[in-house]
Design a protein that fits this description.
heterodimer, A: mainly alpha, MetI-like fold, 2 domains, 77% helix, 0% strand, globular, B: mainly alpha, 12 helices, flat, peptide transport (chain B), OppC_N (chain B), cell membrane (chain B), ABC transporter permease subunit (chain B)
């Protein structure tokens, strides 16, 4: 960090550029979802009115939905709606999609946040230790562990995890966020503050329920953490290898600085900049990677919401969910971009 | 002159000889990497299994035999057991390798080619062509891949071809990026200027002189992506959106075994092991290939 004369203007200019490209990307996202929604073989009019509607009813509905307008006007209306947080109405539940997404999203957020925390806590030290002792048994082991994380189908790993830790050993809770006993009392005992069970139960002081929630989240979060760790440790290792060969490291060593300080303070601090991007990317990836995991653990998150909607052809819900995930994804990318520039004086 | 001498001749007599010599040296380097060799063997095993499936599979992969349903592994005649329709799991996995290979093949024949064309055109022409094409690429990169693939399959309908199309449509942007970066480094070089002065048109220059320079980086990317393609395809199959039963696709098989996971664990476990092994093989081979073809990218 520089002090005193902070070169703010170029930074602001860059951030402005980032925001502009963010807006453009988001517009692109909407264009793509709009195209998908328009070429979908399910006719929205039949989906609402059913097969037996008369010609007049159909014509009326088409006019009401604006399907007779020119395509650019339809897109304008779509854009206007989305900007005003209207993602349409779910065909299945007849509820506004955004409200439903708001209910499902915290569960996904809770799961992927926990997984990313684990991934960073284990992945960064593993990568650093691997880089300082390349070729050692520890290094080989971490690489193998990471490689397995890269190669394993996550839905299969989830099933095997359930089979082993829930079915055979009984160490963890099964599918769902709580045991059914707690599930029934949940709404009465715990006020919904954040919609994240671990936080809400802790706030309400329901520690039995909290422990039960932990036993349910630990397995899916652990599995996702493995994937995130595989990526984070590999990238940390490569960044650290690069730093440890630099001259300033040699200088620090020659000065007689303890090796631990050289590695963990000087070396690691300089890898922080690219690491921020890596961590943000892996977080964004987990948000979407949770789709398959959620299906298996009956986790009421966004991924499961989208796949469930998909299987019954509820397109507004699918596209609404896609837009939200896409927006979060784009947002995380931009955030990492800005953090990157804040952390690295050369990038300002 | 022995083969070795011919290959390592410091003064090759022809282009073919020099190329063969290069390839030989790269192979020697690749061979020293035991993990990469393991990956190569797994990949070869997959290809062989796919080719010879009808001869090595002990049973018909589709034929049902309800008397033999849910036999555990190591039952005589059923090394990996049977599923809920009494079909031999080993035979289904062997036939399933054909589907896996087919999907991977189709994707790597389409996505990288599209990416190559877009990237080289953007890089070669520059200006607004570059701005527009790269903006589109960025938009696709900003999409969460699996979710976009899901939405596309929802629109196109279930099935293997649509799954392939969805995966291809979501995986071309990184190739376009790589190809554009390579193009930018060569577009102002003297040899391109020389070809242009001889009167070659843009198409000819891009096709004949720019694309070949981008190929190595794109190929490395492809081998590293193959595992991801397999995992995505299996994931779509698992969700019931890709290949449809009764075809023995591995993801579909896991999905079918999910119902009796706790009682008959092998039905879901065996095909999952197959996916894991093949994807591990591709990853190991990809890492090794990158070390050989692109020493500066090695980590």
């Amino acid at each position: 960090m520089t002090h005193g004369a902070f070169p703010m203007t170029p930074f602001l200019k860059q951030t402005g550029k980032t925001l502009f490209s963010l807006a453009l990307t988001f517009l692109g996202l909407l264009i793509v979802t709009f195209i998908i929604a328009r070429v979908v073989p399910v006719d929205p009019v039949t989906a609402i009115l059913g097969e037996r509607a008369t010609g007049e009813q159909i014509a009326e509905m088409r006019a009401k939905l604006g399907l007779d307008d020119p395509i650019w006007k339809q897109f304008g209306i779509y854009l206007w709606d989305v900007i005003h947080f209207d993602l349409g109405t779910s065909i299945r539940t007849r509820e506004p999609v955004l409200e439903e997404v708001g209910r499902y999203f915290p569960a996904t957020l809770e799961l992927s946040t926990l997984a990313t925390i684990f991934g960073v806590l284990f992945g960064v030290p593993a990568g650093v230790l691997g880089a300082t002792r390349p070729g050692s048994v520890f290094d080989q082991f971490t690489r193998l562990f990471g490689l397995i994380g890269y190669s394993v189908p996550v839905f299969w790993l989830s099933l095997i995890g359930l089979l082993l830790f829930y079915g055979q050993l009984g160490w963890v809770g099964g599918p769902g966020r709580l045991d059914s006993m707690y599930d029934m009392m949940y709404d009465m005992k715990v006020p919904a503050v954040t919609h994240m069970i671990l936080i809400d139960t802790a706030l309400a002081g329901e520690w039995d329920m909290w422990r039960n929630a932990v036993s349910h989240i630990i397995l899916p979060a652990g599995i996702l953490a493995w994937l995130s760790m595989a990526y984070i440790s590999r990238m940390t290792r490569s960044f650290m290898m690069n730093e440890m060969g630099q001259e300033y490291i040699t200088t620090a060593r020659v000065k007689g600085m303890p090796e631990g300080r050289v590695i963990w303070v000087h070396g690691l601090r300089n890898t922080m900049v690219p690491l921020i991007t890596v961590i943000a990317l892996s977080y964004a990836y987990l948000l979407e990677g949770a789709v398959l995991t959620e299906t298996i653990f009956a986790w009421p998150g966004l991924g499961r919401y989208i796949t469930d909607a998909l299987l019954i052809g509820d397109m507004p819900a699918v596209l609404g969910g896609t837009i939200v995930v896409g927006a979060v994804y784009i947002g995380l990318n931009m955030l990492s971009d800005i953090l990157y520039r804040l952390a690295d004086p050369r990038a300002r | 002159m022995t083969w070795n001498e011919w290959l390592l001749d410091p003064n090759p007599k022809s282009r073919a000889q020099s190329r063969a010599g290069q390839a030989w040296l790269q192979w020697l380097r690749f061979r020293r990497n035991h993990l990469a060799m393991a990956g190569l063997f797994i990949t070869l095993a997959l290809v062989l299994a796919a080719i010879f499936a009808p001869w090595i599979a002990p049973h018909d992969p589709i034929a049902q035999s309800l008397a033999d349903r849910l036999q555990p592994p190591l039952t005589p005649g059923h090394l990996m057991g049977t599923d809920d329709f009494g079909r031999d799991i080993l035979s289904r996995i062997l036939y399933g390798s054909r589907i896996t290979l087919y999907i991977v093949g189709l994707v790597i024949l389409t996505a990288p080619v599209a990416g190559l064309i877009i990237g080289t055109v953007a890089g070669y022409f520059g200006g607004w062509v570059d701005a527009v094409l790269m903006r589109i690429t960025d938009i696709f990169l900003a999409f969460p891949k699996l979710i976009l693939a899901l939405a596309l399959v929802a629109v196109l309908g279930k099935g293997m071809e649509n799954a392939v199309l969805a995966i291809a449509l979501t995986s071309w942007p990184p190739y376009a990026r790589v190809a554009r970066a390579e193009t930018l480094t060569v577009r102002n070089s003297d040899y391109i200027a020389a070809v242009r002065l001889q009167g070659a048109g843009a198409t000819r220059i891009i096709w004949g002189h720019v694309m070949p320079m981008c190929l190595p980086s794109v190929i490395i990317r492809v081998t590293l992506d193959m595992a991801g393609i397999i995992l995505t395809a299996a994931g779509l199959g698992f969700l019931g959106l890709g290949v449809q039963p009764p075809d023995p696709e591995w993801g579909v098989m896991i999905s079918a075994g999910r119902k009796f996971l706790f009682e008959q664990w092998w039905v879901a476990t065996m095909p999952g092991l197959a996916i894991f092994l093949v994807s591990l093989g591709f990853n190991l081979m990809g890492d090794g290939l990158r070390d050989v073809l692109d020493p500066k990218g090695a980590r």
